[in-house]
């Protein structure tokens, strides 16, 4: 189970992005965040950033942290959401493949060790971040509804989360 822990266990696990201590991360030397969009920042059916998300992005920016949205969703969805936040984005990212993560790091002009990946899926966001040597933070999905492929991923994810919980590696609470 060593490889499973290495690749699928997040460095941190929180209920939402709002529980992430951005000030602490900035002090620790992190300069960039690669964040998923759907069910990480807002529900998959929410078209625009909420006021709280806008404030969260501004706080990160004020602390010198650059954010890039990296999503497997289509250009129209990711571009329209990102435009309101004035941040770079990568659509159809094919996570967990590494190309989009590397592209985001290059665009932000930072090093992998200065990069955080935030997402709601273990098999795309956490696995993709971990296999690229990035610091990963998993959030509880904003909504309980998912697309077909994500539903399948959640079955595997639930088993992995239960394993990590039973081993005492993470604290896991349902919403």
From TrEMBL:
Highest rank taxon of the organism:
Bacteria
> Keyword annotations for this protein?
Hydrolase
- InterPro entries recorded for this chain? HAD-like_sf, HAD-SF_hydro_IA, HAD-SF_hydro_IIIA, HAD_sf, PGPP1/Gep4
Please verify whether the record's keywords include Cytoplasm.
no
Record GO terms (molecular function): phosphatidylglycerophosphatase activity
Entry's Pfam families?
Answer: Hydrolase
Q: What is this protein called?
A: HAD family hydrolase
Q: Which organism is it from?
A: Staphylococcus petrasii
């Amino acid at each position: 189970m060593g490889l499973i822990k290495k690749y699928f266990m997040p460095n941190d696990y929180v209920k939402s992005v709002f529980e992430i201590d951005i000030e602490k991360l900035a002090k620790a030397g992190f300069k960039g965040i690669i964040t998923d969009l759907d069910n990480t920042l807002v529900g998959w059916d929410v078209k625009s950033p909420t006021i709280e998300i806008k404030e969260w992005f501004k706080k990160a920016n004020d602390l010198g942290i650059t954010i890039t949205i990296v999503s497997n969703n289509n250009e129209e969805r990711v571009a329209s959401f990102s435009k309101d936040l004035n941040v770079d984005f990568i659509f159809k990212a094919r996570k967990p493949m590494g190309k989009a993560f590397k592209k985001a790091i290059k665009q932000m002009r930072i090093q992998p060790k200065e990069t955080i990946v935030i997402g709601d899926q273990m098999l795309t966001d956490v696995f993709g971040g971990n296999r690229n040597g990035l610091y990963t933070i998993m959030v509880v999905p904003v909504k309980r509804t998912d697309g077909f492929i994500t539903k399948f991923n959640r079955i595997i994810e639930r088993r992995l989360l239960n394993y990590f919980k039973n081993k005492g590696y993470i604290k896991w609470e349902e919403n």
